[in-house]
Amino acid sequence: MTDNNKDAYREAGVDIDLEAQAVKALVSQLTFKRKGEYQMASDIGHFAGFVNFGSHVLALAVDGVGTKMLIADELKDWSTVGIDCIAMNVNDLYVMNLEPVAFVDYVATNALSLEQMKQIGIGLNEGARLSNISIVGGETATLKGLVQGLDLAGACLGIQEKNKVISGEKVAPGDLIVGIPSSGIHSNGLTLARRMVTEYGSYDERLSDGRAIGEILLTPTRIYAEVLKLTAITQVHGMCHITGGGLLNLTRLSGFGFSIDTPLEPQEIYRWIQEKGKISDSEMYRTFNMGMGYVCIVPESGVTAVSSIFPDAKIVGRVTEKPGVLLKGKEIR
């Protein structure tokens, strides 16, 4: 690990701090709330938004594939990005113990390609199968002059009984943080990853496992559907989908702190990126998932249940009284 470049993601074109400020500026203007039945049942800012629906809540999440689409374009392989699109949405629902049920996609492009659309459909269908949801509609827009290439996004509807929603309010000091491995970079931080490939390598370059970097970067996002089985058999105080912002996503769960003492082993692609760019540990862990795509926060009595559902899970740390996120004793900002 190195400790040099602390602003690599911003220099590549993505300023996490500015994005947070921009979101606050937008949300500050969203003051109107529906009157009558089916009102909003949550604050803006968690992983999903809620609507009252009798004894249940309906939940909505929205996300896209991001600049991973540019790698798909480079390799002329769009067959898995549909999985990413669905995964980035359903994983944001699972963290609150919500069951995803329906999905709509949005494709924006400067020029339609039948082959692209067919391959995107293959991935969307597989993502729907893995998460047991129906794709109930979507929208395709040809926006020549506004869009260059192709952007893929979607929104997902989830449902749950109100008393089964997990918001993170039960997270308490002493709880154990159990990490579940990612399948790779998933669909965040690709702007920085692409820059490293462009400047220091190529998508054809092979790492020690024999796979090309392009193939590794296109590995689809893991879908953590088994979470619904876990919450049915043990008490889970909180869960987190490690996406853009890396470990800082944990602060969305609670005002307590999170100390990661024994992080999961990052895949080789992360070491390659970090060494090529001389990027600090802190910058890596607030940009990428670093091999840990999902987190369960449980009392000690719940660890066995997590391991039974996710055999590859591992205790990585504990919840602390002092706020913030620590990685081996050093604060991630």
From TrEMBL:
Stretches assigned to coiled coil: none
Reaction(s) catalysed (UniProt annotation): 2-formamido-N(1)-(5-O-phospho-beta-D-ribosyl)acetamidine + ATP = 5-amino-1-(5-phospho-beta-D-ribosyl)imidazole + ADP + phosphate + H(+)
Principal location class: cytoplasm
Pathway assignment: Purine metabolism; IMP biosynthesis via de novo pathway; 5-amino-1-(5-phospho-D-ribosyl)imidazole from N(2)-formyl-N(1)-(5-phospho-D-ribosyl)glycinamide: step 2/2
Gene that encodes the chain: purM
Subcellular location: Cytoplasm
Cited Pfam families: AIRS, AIRS_C
GO function terms (MF aspect): ATP binding; phosphoribosylamine-glycine ligase activity; phosphoribosylformylglycinamidine cyclo-ligase activity
GO BP term (any one): adenine biosynthetic process
Protein name: Phosphoribosylformylglycinamidine cyclo-ligase
Species per Swiss-Prot/TrEMBL record: Methanospirillum lacunae
